[in-house]
Design goal:
By secondary structure, this protein is an alpha/beta fold. It is built from twelve helices and 19 strands. Helices cover about 35% and strands about 30% of the residues. A six-stranded mixed β-sheet has the order 11-6-1-2-3-19, sandwiched between helices. Strands 14-13-12-17-18 form a five-stranded mixed β-sheet, with helices on both faces. The two termini are about 35 Å apart. Bound molecules: adenosine-5'-triphosphate and magnesium ion. Adenosine-5'-triphosphate (ATP) binds near residues 40 and 211.
Length: about 400
């Protein structure tokens, strides 16, 4: 047996559960060796609302990935989303102990930055360092070893509802899976689809899934803003169910096959066949009717994203524009419509940075699943090489401490 290690990403989405099994070689090469997906039944708008159904879907997705990879899945990195998630920028200051910044000073300053009023039902999920300032000199990424007496840290703090995190962990435990970490979904997706240069010059990631649209803004290499909008592609499907009087399953298939959100992309006279419910005859309908239903909904969604970004104040600082990912980014015309609304360059983000079953995972549907694997690899590295890891790693309390906090100290 070679010294390969396995890292597994478990994306518990509103629309599907995806389990991505990857093998990591000692030199850091990541090869996807198995994938399992199963429709998700127990979530609403990114949040677990039915444990039994979620457990069943997770079990089936994991089983499929195990069969394909020949690996028994024991430990997973899993994601979290939903409108209970909040992102804040915060700031901390400490005096260094010996006139030189030590790792301990960095830990203290991050703790100081974390000290903010969080409501009792929320817990810190991530503390993501942005910049350090030493004696007024800003823009420092690796402060350890530098001289100075006053150390300041700018961080992005992500909090989420304790109960939502607990339910995700509970579902995994019920499937005999240990949870290595619970990661903000757009943070995971960003690992898989954004290029380091994009994060440097400023980029907006918009992951449009089935139940939520997750936003993350990166500037100067660090995360500056995160938010979640509880609307996704399943809302488009529901609109089609009502508008075309067909079943949710058929509506979803029609959307994938014939859907579009730019009227100019479809010939005015093109007809499509709509399967009806209750054994009635299928009907023919102009394809433009579908576009008339989908276009306003996508427009509304992008306008909401734009409003979030304008509120964050970062919308003018993103030279790399917008990267769309998640299953709904595949809707025909989504990139073009987003370009119009954001008045910025927009591209489709597919997972990259992995080998193995590349053809299977190179779709925006697997951005979070692959991202969780990549996040897991990075996290393991920060654990084993903590003295050499410089910055932008996720710091703060260990997952074990956080999980104990989520469950109370007795568990
Ligand atoms: N080719 C396509 N065209 C249009 N929509 C698509 C296409 N493929 C998938 N979708 C839509 O993408 C959505 C699912 O996306 P995804 O798999 O990213 O969701 P999820 O991760 O399960 O959900 P969430 O992240 O919101 O919890 C569904 O609404 C589906 O109809
Ligand atoms: Mg998703």
């Amino acid at each position: 047996m070679k010294h390969q290690q396995t890292v597994v990403g478990l994306d518990i989405g509103t629309h599907k559960i995806a389990c991505v099994v990857a093998e990591v070689s000692p030199d850091g090469k990541v090869d996807v060796i198995g994938i399992g997906t199963h429709p998700s039944r127990g979530l609403r708008k990114g949040v677990v609302v039915n444990i039994d159904s979620t457990v069943e879907s997770i079990g089936l997705a994991v089983q499929e990935a195990e069969l394909m990879s020949g690996v028994e899945v024991k430990r997973v990195y899993t994601g979290i989303a939903g409108s209970h998630i909040h992102g804040y920028n915060s700031h901390g200051v400490v005096a260094t102990k010996d006139g030189e910044v030590s790792q301990e000073d960095v830990t203290r300053v991050i703790e100081a930055a974390k000290a903010m009023n969080i409501s009792a039902d929320q817990k810190v999920l991530h503390i993501l360092p942005q910049d350090y300032i030493i004696d007024g000199q800003d823009g420092i990424k690796s402060p350890v070893g530098m001289s100075g007496v006053r150390l300041e840290a700018k961080v992005h703090v992500v909090t989420g509802a304790v109960s939502s995190a607990q339910n995700i962990i509970k579902c995994c435990h019920r499937c005999d899976l240990e949870v290595a970490d619970v990661v903000l979904e757009q943070l995971a997706s960003s690992e898989a689809v954004l290029q380091p240069e994009e994060k440097e010059i400023g980029v907006i990631l918009v992951d449009i899934g089935g139940g939520t649209t997750d936003i993350a803004v990166f500037i100067n290499g660090s995360i500056r803003h995160t938010s979640v909008i509880p609307i996704g592609g399943d809302h488009l499907t529901n609109d089609l169910v009502v508008g075309l009087r067909t079943s949710p399953r058929e509506a979803d298939q029609l959307k994938r096959k014939h859907g579009a959100c730019m009227p100019s992309m479809v010939a005015p006279d093109e007809m499509i066949e709509i399967p009806s419910v209750g054994g009635r005859e299928p009907r023919a309908m102009p394809r433009q009717v579908m576009i008339q239903i989908l276009e306003p909904r996508m427009e509304e969604l992008f306008e909401m994203v734009k409003a979030h970004l304008e509120q964050s104040g970062f919308h003018n600082q993103v030279s790399a524009g917008v990267v769309l990912t998640g299953g709904s980014s595949l809707l025909k015309g989504a990139v073009e419509l987003a370009e119009e609304i954001f008045d910025a360059p927009v591209r489709l983000g597919r997972p990259s940075g992995v080998g193995g079953l590349v053809d299977v995972v190179a779709t925006p549907v697997y951005s979070t699943g692959v991202g969780l694997v990549l996040y897991g690899c990075r996290y393991r590295q920060t654990n084993t090489r903590s003295t050499t890891k410089k910055h932008h790693s996720v710091s703060g309390p260990s997952l074990w401490q956080r999980m104990r906090a989520w469950f109370g100290d007795t568990s």
